[in-house]
Amino acid sequence: MNAETNQDQLINRREAIRRVSALLGGVAFVGGSGLLAAAEKARPAAASTGEFTDQDIAFLDEIAETILPATKTPGAKAAKTGAFMALMVTDSYGPGEQKTFRDGMRNVDEAMQKAHGVSFMAATPEQRLAVLTVLDHEQKRVMDEREAARRQGGAKQPAHYFRMMKELALLGFFTSEIGCTKVQRYAEVPGRFDPCIPYTQGEPAWASHA
Amino acid sequence: MQSVRYDAIVVGSGISGGWAAKELTEKGLRVLLLERGRNVEHIKDYVNATKGPWEYLHRGGHTHAMEAAYPVLTRDYALNEKNLAFWVNEKESPYTEVKRFDWYRGYQVGGRSLTWGRQSYRWSDFDFEANSKEGIAVDWPIRYNELAPWYDHVEKHAGISGSHEGLAQLPDGQFQPAMPLNCGEEMIAGRLKNAFGGKRRMIIGRTANATQGLPGRAPCQYRNACWLGCPYGAYFSTQSSTLPAAAKTGKLTLKPWSIVTEVLYDKDQKRASGVRVLDAVTEQTTEYSAKVIFLCASTLNSTWLLMRSATDIWPGGLGSGSGELGHNLMDHHFRCGADGDLEGLNDKYYYGRRPNGIYIPRYRNLFGEKREYLRGFGYQGSASRDGWTRAVKELGLGAEFKDEMTTPGPWKFGATAFGEMLPNHANLIGLDASRKDKWGLSVLKIDCATGENERLMRKDMMADMAEMLEQSGAKRVKTFDYGSFPGMGIHEMGTARMGRDPKTSVLNSHNQVWDAPNVFVTDGSCMTSSACQNPSLTYMALTARAADFAVNELNRRNL
Question: Which pTM does this prediction carry?
Answer without folding.
Answer: 0.93
